[in-house]
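User: For documentation purposes, I need each entry recorded in a consistent format: the amino acid sequence on its own, followed directly by the corresponding structure tokens. There are two entries in this batch. Please keep commentary to a minimum and don't merge the entries.

Assistant: Recorded as requested. Entry 1:
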Amino acid sequence: MKIYLTPGPSENYFIVEEAIKEALKNKVTAISHRSKEFKAIFEHTVSELRELLQLPANFSMAFTGSANEIWERILQNCVEKESFHLVNGSFSKKFYQFAEQLHLSPSKYEVKFGEGFEVENINVPSSAELIAVIQNETSSGVQFPVENIAKIREKNHDKLIVVDAVSSLPYANLDYSVIDSVYFSVQKGFGVPAGLGVWVYNDKMIEKAKNLEAKGKSIGTYHSLLELDKYAKQNQTPETPNVLAIYVLGKVAEAMNKKGMAMIRRETDYKAELLYHTLEKTEFLSPVINDKVKRSKTVVVANVEKGTSSDVVAFLEKKKILIGKGYGSYKDSQIRIANFPTHSKELIEQVADFLMEYGK
């Protein structure tokens, strides 16, 4: 049986199969999203995620179809004219392009693919209403240290700060006192089948949406932030959602809480260090990111020094391990290895051994 270390979708968390069987047995997929049964599922999932992420009381949570959808919702609901974007890879660039497509006037601080941001070089225009921070760029494997978000906040008290943590949560230990929103999808760090986005937002985001609506700006329809929030307060969603995914996510968050985030973070650090150490030892692969502080702990990206990424992928696939190729124009010259909570220490140790064999 193949094991998926692709950076999303990735290997399912160990309790997912049992949770799906339990859900089907209890006919969770047939219940109404207005029923007391669904409200209980919604409430349980939100409660477990709040504990897992250590969310303050002034933050709320809504479910969408994907993290990509949340880009659009953020721009529609919380930007009147201008957003500011940190761009260093394909996904952070797409968020910026969404703003252009919505006929806003976005600005950006962009560095080359695979490079990190120097905080002292980030100058946010005074006209920007919202700052889009990419905490972990899935395409290039660069992380923005969470403590640097506070440095951005120090100079921008009047702006909304939203954080893309799609491939770093639940590992990322965010300081919610310096951000206004964070979002993620479930098929990466949470190991849940794809088809669900989670949007976490505070009261300032709600107030911005209300202000824009009062000015006559369209903030969307059934999935406007105000509509999502109205139903979330009742443990509901505006429309029939992916009930199965919400149910399974709640079970996964519950299992992670039992294990404890301290343990999950320690294991993630260990596995990441092992992978990067292996890449530095082999002459056929090398880390893309030289600065260790900026290396993602959850998506490890390497240059292929001998052959192509297809060669490495094929080599590992023979051993029943699936990894990702590089993203976009780097698909032939780089590989990406997921390091999520669902990937055990023993598995990563085995992968490290296999990588040392490659090219010999």
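Entry 2:
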Amino acid sequence: MSKKIYVIYTGGTIGMKPTDSGYAPSGNMQALLDEKLPSHARKGLPDFDLVEYEDLIDSSNIRPQNWQQMATDIADHYEDYDGFVVLHGTDTMAFSSSMLSFMLRNLDKPVIFTGSQIPLCEPRSDGLENFVGALSLATDERINEVCLYFNGRLMRGNRARKQNAYLFDAFDSPNFPWLGRADINIELNEALLLKPENKPEFHLECAEDTQVGIVQLFPGITAQWLEAALNQPQKAFIMRTYGTGNGPDGDPALLDTLKKATDAGKIIVNLTQCHRGAVHQDSYAAGSALAEAGVIGGLDTTTEAMFCKLHHLLSKGYSTWKIRELVGHNIAGELTI
């Protein structure tokens, strides 16, 4: 029996049309796909149903309620389809694919995010190849997780990052190998694919207010500046540090600011500003000082994945102690233990 895929169109470049102020989200994706992919060209591709969200967005406008909508939509239709494709804007696709990896766990079907750098309405668009590739991968029974597919690369959704604003190979997975590659043949690295341990689990709690902030160290950062950032209402912060997780250990006032914040219950996770690599706070004294101030090492998790992981854990109502413990636990393949 042929497989059937559920396609969600959320907006993004792939379906945009030109306006006086630049490209903007546009509806009627089904007609655009019918034009670019007529019936005779669909041989070998699975059947699909496409749902177009009423409020299409440029992904730079993504909010937690959008994650709730996508995850709930997939959960509601999970038993009716063999796989899922989410058409999404590239700017925050890595955030969304990360978030859904925490909300939809132990999957036994593929959920594939994709989009494009150039709209489908343009002659040089990369959107059709990305859509066809994602649609084909969404039928593969070996894939049981949330992935991101772009320019022939299949990546774990919570390991991917947008690394280039101008090239077709916009996404990469800096700290984890690609799960597969679509060239003449589609090849998967089956040893890396997640295997479901139990029946699918849908954790659809997703607080509407963003509960995580991001702070980046820079030369000359002061305790006063950091204190003002940490006094924001967010309950958890990602602090993007240098190298393997180093900070200015020669500034006692700054370290005291961090200690006061963590003692007050703020969760501060240390991630490196480097594109590749992991945080090991004990490698240098400058990292050990942060650990002594209560900062938690985030290992090789991406900023996008840690942001979503913290938001997810806070949405579930876990205690500060529990969240601090789970930061270093591999929940959905997001970090290397």
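Summary note for entry 2:
The chain has two domains: 4-202, 212-327.
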